[in-house]
Amino acid sequence: MGTIDFDFEGETVIVTGASSGIGRAIALRFSEAGATVINADRREEPKSGGMPTHEKIIDEHDETAEFVETDVSNSDELESVVLAAREYGGVDVMVNNAATQHSERFLDVEKDVFDRLHQTNVGGYFFGTQAAARDMIDRDEPGCIVNTASISSEVAQYGQVQYDSTKGAIKMITRGTALELAEHDIRVNAVSPGQIATEFTEGWSEEAQNAAGEGGFLKPVPLGRAGLPEDITGSVLFLSSTDAAYITGELVYIDGGWTAI
Q: Does residue 212 surpass a pLDDT of 50?
């Protein structure tokens, strides 16, 4: 099969939650393509250890990168990280990726858990999109916004109502903002990963895992494996590129075919 070489030289990309997992892989892939990358995360160090994302980018790819401590549940901090991008010319691509998860039976979920999930997963994407779009409009520049949704945007999972509801909201944030921002030449799309092997999957309740079946899901993944963070990056860069110039308001499911059966 052929390969695609992306070129984001001279562009500035913000990736929320880029210290670990999918966000880290996305940030590294953008840097390989020549972009300046800002990691907006609450913690600088990767959950699995190793060199912080921005340091790895500078060390291995010799590209400009920065870490900006950011709690995406705080809209003021999202505006601050977008302001930081102005030092590099302004944000060209915003990847709303930071999220939190909590597995628990619906009847046992407390309000503070529900509120925390929605402030981070919904508010973080809503106001992250808003802050980035305002910057693009103020500079009279086109831009791209890519959200990390989930198969949970489409299907329910046991013990995940509180989480699934946030990802369903991201689906409509993606489509609604794509509609309103089209007149400004700002495209908004989302990737919807399936079961991806990252630190994020830690913390699933034993009850939820057992309910999901021995292999993680009751039905098999047609491609026969769990996904890797690197399986997500190509679609994010494609949706952010000129090759996707006529694509907006779409969700791309990256799940090994799981939602197809």
A: no
Let me know: does 129 contact 173? Beta carbons within 8 Å: yes
Question: Which residues are catalytic, by number?
Answer: 150, 163, 167
Tell me the C-alpha distance between 247 and 12, whole Å.
Answer: 21
Instruction: Report which of 138, 37, 120 is spatially closest to residue 85, judged by C-alpha positions.
Output: 37
**In terms of C-beta density within 10 A (0-12 exposed, 13-18 middle, 19 or more buried), how is residue 241 classed?**
middle
With residues binned 3-state (H G I as helix, E B as strand, rest as coil), the percentages for the chain, rounded to 5, are 45, 15, 40
Q: What is the pLDDT of residues 52-69, one digit of tens each?
A: 999 999 999 899 999 999
Question: For residue range 84-94, what is the model confidence (pLDDT) as tens digits?
Answer: 999 999 999 99
Measured CA to CA, the distance from residue 49 to residue 44 in angstroms comes to 10
CB atoms within 10 A of CB 82: 25
pLDDT of 239 above 80: yes
β-strand partners of 95: 15, 146
Are the C-beta atoms of residues 174 and 94 closer than 8 Å to each other?
no
Distance between CA atoms of residues 229 and 204, nearest Å: 18
Query: Position of tokens 């916004």?
Result: 145
CA dist 78 and 74 (Å) reads: 7
Q: What is the pLDDT of residue 199?
A: 56
Q: Answer yes or no: is pLDDT of 225 > 50.
A: yes
Which pLDDT belongs to residue 232? 97
Helix (H) or strand (E) holding 13: strand 12-16
Q: Rounded to an integer, what distance in angstroms lies between the CA atom of residue 161 and that of residue 112? A: 15
Residue type, 137: I
Is the pLDDT confidence value at 12 over 60? yes
CA distance 193 to 232: 7
